[in-house]
Design a protein that fits this description.
The protein is an alpha+beta fold. It has helices spanning 45-56, 66-78, 85-99, 104-112, 121-137, 142-149, 153-185, 206-217, 243-252, 275-287, 312-319, 375-379, and strands spanning 14-16, 26-28, 194-199, 221-227, 230-236, 258-261, 265-271, 303-304, 333-346, 350-357, 362-367, 387-398, 401-412. The chain has twelve helices and 13 strands. The strands form three sheets. A five-stranded mixed sheet has the order 3-4-5-7-6. Strand 3, helix 8 (206-217) and strand 4 (221-227) form a beta-alpha-beta unit.
């Protein structure tokens, strides 16, 4: 990779940075955007139904109900299916319709979440979706559906407020279980696949906790909630280890009662007496995978850009490739040779900084959960140390004003590749 500055993304570039400890960057090759012949052509349940609507109304597409399009968009994102092909088209149109806020339930939940910017994948997947789903996790399964179907503003506010409360309860359950498992996981830290079980772990949050552990340890994680002689499990995996096919194979071999999934996630039921056999089965499968799973999660980067490229015009060009999500990752960039002008702590764990490049251009940045990491040494105070930053562009919208900032994923202290 050369040393030239680029104002537009270059196709076919990648770098590896273990978070917070990177001292060098290693160039590799990746297609950008990542769409290959073997990319899974998957539709979620919502996307499949939308496809049926497309087929039966192919000569009358403009009359497809907008209400259906925005709900299908929401379901597609929350199903975490690849945002390519029809899925991407569905979500792209759905986001435009959601912006109109014609669904009373969604609009009310939007207001309860205090979202003030245009709809995005983040809003659907991390704010609206979890709240709609929160009722089911605490025994109020019908709340989400009632909210989306209801047209009474007062009743919608009641449902949205309750779902917001249930979501906080879900977060407390999740936090409690995560803390409990982290205390136990030290005994299994050397296992290449983390498989843990416990009595009466809340089935509504084991999938979320498994995802958190997967991200923390960069290992496949399977959590099994035991109730009597039966366990119900949720699994999350990493790139290169197809957990779905392993669950299906174990089901076919009568190790599991039933199960299924895809490459990155799955679920199953199992008799307690079969758990040890299942563990041996999974670990044996893992040994056959010809992958070098690092302790550090790799960071995939697309291009070098200059500090002056952190602007609204360039952000809008990159946004043409949206919506970003599973199967269509958001482009990430490197900006070389920057120095800190000033920095401050926000929200206890995050750092906002103003950096300046060699060309004199200044950029606003934020690094989430950076307090306590090596990043804080470089981002919190003015110094003459030059470093590189890796991350993505983000649009801030507030009271009619728009500005672009750079979200820092990691830094590197070497000056060039």
């Amino acid at each position: 990779m050369g040393h030239r500055k680029h104002s537009q993304p270059r196709r076919g570039s990648l770098a590896y940075l273990p978070r917070g400890r990177a001292k060098s960057m290693e160039a590799r090759i990746r297609a950008w955007p990542k769409i290959t012949d073997d990319e899974p052509k998957l539709l979620g349940h919502a996307g499949f139904k939308a496809g049926c609507v497309q087929l039966v109304s192919i000569d009358d597409r403009d009359k497809t109900p907008n209400a259906g399009k925005q709900l299908v968009s929401l379901g597609t994102v929350c199903d975490v299916v690849p945002l390519i092909g029809l899925n991407r088209a569905i979500v792209k149109q759905g986001l435009k319709i959601i912006k109109s806020k014609k669904n009373i339930g969604l609009k009310t939940l939007w207001d309860v979440c205090k979202i003030e910017s245009n709809p995005s994948i983040y809003h659907l997947g991390y704010l609206l979706g979890p709240r709609i789903n929160a009722g089911g996790r605490v025994g109020k399964c019908s709340h989400g559906a009632n909210l989306l179907l209801n047209k009474d503003p007062k009743y919608s506010f009641k449902l949205a407020s309750e779902l917001d409360k249930y979501n906080m309860e879900r977060q407390m359950l999740e936090s409690s279980l995560l803390k409990k498992i982290l205390n136990e996981i030290k005994y299994f830290s050397k296992d290449p696949v983390l498989i843990l079980s416990g009595k009466n772990w809340h089935e509504g949050v084991i999938g979320i906790v498994a995802a958190r552990l997967k991200d923390k340890f960069n290992k496949p994680v399977i959590l099994i909630s035991l109730d009597g002689d039966i366990g119900k499990a949720s699994a999350r995996s990493i790139v290169g280890f197809d957990i779905g096919s392993i669950i299906i194979s174990a089901t076919q071999d009568n190790i599991l009662l039933k199960g299924g999934g895809h490459k990155m996630a799955g679920g199953f039921s199992i008799k307690v007496e079969k758990i040890d056999e299942f563990k041996k089965f999974v670990l044996k499968k893992f040994k056959t995978v010809n992958e070098d799973f690092s302790k550090d999660k790799p960071l995939f980067l697309d291009s070098i850009i200059s500090p002056s490229a952190v602007n609204l015009e360039f952000f809008n060009k990159v946004s043409l490739l949206s919506p970003f999500g599973s199967g269509n990752p958001e482009p990430r960039f490197v900006i070389e040779d920057v120095k800190t002008i000033n920095g401050k702590i926000v929200g206890e764990k995050h750092i906002k900084s103003i950096l300046v490049g060699k060309d004199g251009s200044s950029i606003k940045t934020i690094a989430f959960n950076a307090i306590g990491s090596d990043l804080s040494e470089y981002l919190l105070k003015k110094n003459n140390k030059s470093f590189n930053i890796a991350g993505k562009l983000s649009l801030n919208e507030w009271k009619g004003q728009s500005n672009v900032e750079f979200i820092i994923d990691d830094i590197s202290v070497n000056k060039t590749f």
